[in-house]
């Protein structure tokens, strides 16, 4: 017997059930009303086409009974809801999902906020995007990034990982 396929309608139900920000449904509808989001992230964020376009057997690889894909980021990363731990995970489409870290909504976007900062988006734009995504700690994250950058604490991947871990602990962004 073939497995059932997860549908966009099911994912929309999860988005509503989880009370995610309205911008997420706008992404699904491909009608982003906010011009800043559309300009800065319109091409980076989409519904998880890479999962939705798979056959039921191909979808099985991504454990969709447990991990509900919410967004596809830059065509290679999936943000999903972990139904067992009631939090969010990120995984690469190219890798197996093996014991992923589970985060709060804000925790799932920590690396994204850092990415925006590193790509020299203005603080005003970053705060605006954070607000649209209902992120609570955007200001604290930007302050911490600015301080770490001034102290030359982000010059290697190891230092960036240490910074990420520090912020995750300080803001309690991980779900165990």
For the largest beta sheet, what order do the strands appear in spatially? 1-2-3-4
Task: Work out the helix count.
Answer: 10
Average residue pLDDT: 92
Structural class: alpha+beta
Cα-to-Cα separation, first versus last residue: 35 Å
User: Strand content of the residues, in percent?
Assistant: 5-15%
Question: What is the radius of gyration?
Answer: 17 Å
What characterizes the major β-sheet? 4 strands, antiparallel
Spans with pLDDT under 50 lasting ≥5 residues?
Answer: none
Estimate percent helicity.
40-55%
Taken in chain order, the helices and strands follow as HHHEHHEEEEHHHHHE
Overall, the morphology is globular
Number of domains: 2
Number of β-strand runs: 6
Q: What does this protein structure show overall?
A:
By secondary structure, this protein is α+β, with helices and mostly antiparallel strands. It folds into two domains: about 10-100, no CATH class; about 110-175, no CATH class. Helices cover about 45% and strands about 15% of the residues. Strands 1-2-3-4 form a four-stranded antiparallel beta sheet. Strands 5-6 form a two-stranded antiparallel ribbon.
Any descriptors?
176 residues; alpha+beta; 2 domains; four-stranded antiparallel β-sheet; 10 helices; 6 strands; 14% strand; globular
């Amino acid at each position: 017997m073939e497995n059932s396929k997860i549908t966009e309608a099911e994912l929309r139900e999860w988005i509503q059930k989880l009370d995610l920000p309205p911008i997420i449904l706008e992404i699904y509808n491909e009608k982003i009303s906010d011009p800043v989001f559309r300009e800065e992230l319109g091409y980076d964020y989409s519904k998880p086409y890479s999962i939705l376009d798979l056959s039921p057997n191909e979808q099985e690889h991504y454990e969709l009974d447990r991990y509900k894909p919410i967004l596809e980021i830059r065509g290679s990363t999936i943000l999903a809801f972990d139904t067992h731990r009631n939090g969010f995970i990120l995984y690469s489409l190219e890798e197996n999902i093996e014991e992923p870290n589970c985060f709060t909504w804000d925790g799932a976007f920590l690396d994204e906020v850092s990415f925006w900062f590193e790509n020299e988006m203005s603080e005003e734009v970053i705060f605006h995007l954070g607000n649209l995504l209902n992120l609570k700690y955007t200001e604290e994250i930007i302050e911490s990034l600015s301080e770490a950058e001034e102290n030359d604490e982000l010059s290697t991947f190891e230092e960036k990982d240490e910074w990420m871990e520090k912020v995750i602990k300080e803001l309690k962004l991980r779900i165990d």
